[in-house]
Amino acid sequence: MLELRPNCECCDRDLPPESRDAVMCSFECTFCSDCAATVLGGLCPNCGGELVRRPIRPAAKLVNNPASSRRVFKAEGCQPVKAA
Description:
Layout: E1 22-24, E2 30-32, H1 33-38, E3 52-53, H2 59-62
Antiparallel strand pairs: 1-2, 1-3
């Protein structure tokens, strides 16, 4: 089950579970759509994987399956993936 992390790893923007502005990679690294587009070029800076819109868990399902409260933030900011 997805963690639904609560913030952008780059800018620390809040991304509640119902946010349509959250994107993630297959490892669940989570970013806001602004950082994903303008800073990261659509690629995860941690694994190089594609960033896609995070699905929204229905509110009724959050009762028994809550979103994560663990914040992951890179204080130094995010750097785009360098081309090989």
